[in-house]
Amino acid sequence: MGDERKKRVNRNNDNDNEKKQRFSFFGFGRKDGPGVDPNEEPILKNPNFGNFFVFYFRKFRELLSINMLLVFGNFPIFFFFIARAGYFGIKSSAPYYQMFAPLFGAYQITPSPLTAALYGIYGIQVPITVNTVGTLVLYALTFLLIFTFGLVNTGVTYLLRNMLRGEPVFFMSDFFNTIKKNRKQALALGIIDALAIFLLGYDVVYFWNHLDSVMMYIFFYVSLLMFVVLIFMRFYAYIMVVTFDLTIKKIIKNSLIFAILGIKRNIVALIGYIFVFALNYYVFALYIPLGIVLPFIIVPATLMAINVYTAYPKIKEIMIDPYYTEDGKPISEEPTSETQD
After folding, report:
1. Residues 6 or more apart whose Cβ sits within 8 Å of residue 226
2. What is the pLDDT along the chain (341 residues), one digit of tens a residue?
């Protein structure tokens, strides 16, 4: 985070002071809005733990719209759900216990009350779905998610950043304009991000299921640590895409630095992540339909709000405030020794 500070160009703030409209509920209608309440206390003046809930409930209606952008923007995930539901598969059944085959043979050769009783216990059949070509095509289409993931996250991060800064938001215009301006970086970062989440997540689950040696314990904890660091880096990466003109290499480097510099805020945000997932799981255990629906209503937007609220104040403190005056104007460069003709 050195030379790039002098080169940064806020490409996404050109029209920030010209927005006079915002979307209605769920973003399905456009209407004139009152703008920002002049008596509303700016959250960024004191971005502490308590003010997150002030920000969250103050912007809850907008978060519902943002959640819809996250869900429907990443539409390839629906191909996965359809494939997992088995609509294109072949329904069949299979024995639940491995003892079924030898027990079935014994029952056929020497039927008796004993073998019949055992067959009644260990001969249980469970329904299965055999994949077809249609199912495999749906799974393949799911991989389109790596192309939408970064684009949608970038557009949504811009909306949340402006909401946190207390600026009016014009949802669809800002969302698509931000994607258009940052499409190369957003696409590249999204592919890297999605692959990293998948690979590290797979490693954590794999080693957790094979904790049968000291080496496996070491691999598990190393993978878990790397996954946590990745979560911390994600807090900052997309914010830097929409705020500065940086290369992907510098964005990843700076995100890693901020993962360390903002460790206190990052840990609190991680606890927030755990709480959100635990709450969703608890609701799912109590009432399955509501637990399934919650991610389509508010959960992803809540996680993104945590990301932006965690990262932007720290980025502002280190990469923005030292280069701007109190009234928001950039600090002029030192005069040079060049003379005019």
Report:
1. 200
2. 544 444 444 444 444 444 434 444 444 444 444 455 555 567 888 889 999 999 999 999 999 999 999 999 999 999 998 888 878 878 777 777 777 777 777 777 777 777 777 777 777 777 777 788 888 999 999 999 999 999 999 999 999 999 999 888 888 999 999 999 999 999 999 999 999 999 999 999 999 999 888 999 999 999 999 999 999 999 999 999 999 989 999 999 999 999 999 999 999 999 999 999 999 999 999 998 898 999 999 999 999 999 999 999 999 999 888 876 655 566 654 444 333 33
H helices of 27-111, where? 49-58, 60-73, 76-85, 100-109
150 Cβ neighbours under 8 A, 6+ residues apart = 186, 187, 188, 189, 190, 191, 193, 194, 238
Q: Name residue, tokens 């059944």.
A: 93
Burial class of residue 23, CB neighbours in 10 A (0-12, 13-18, 19+): buried
**In angstroms, rounded to a whole number, what is the distance separating the alpha carbons of residues 190 and 256?**
16
CA 84-66-185 angle, 5° bins:
85
Q: What is the pTM of this model?
A: 0.78
- Please state, as a whole number, how many other Cβ atoms lie within 10 Å of the Cβ of residue 93: 10
Q: What angle do CA 30, 36, 39 make, to 5 degrees?
A: 150
* Closest C-alpha to 154, from 180, 192, 122: 180
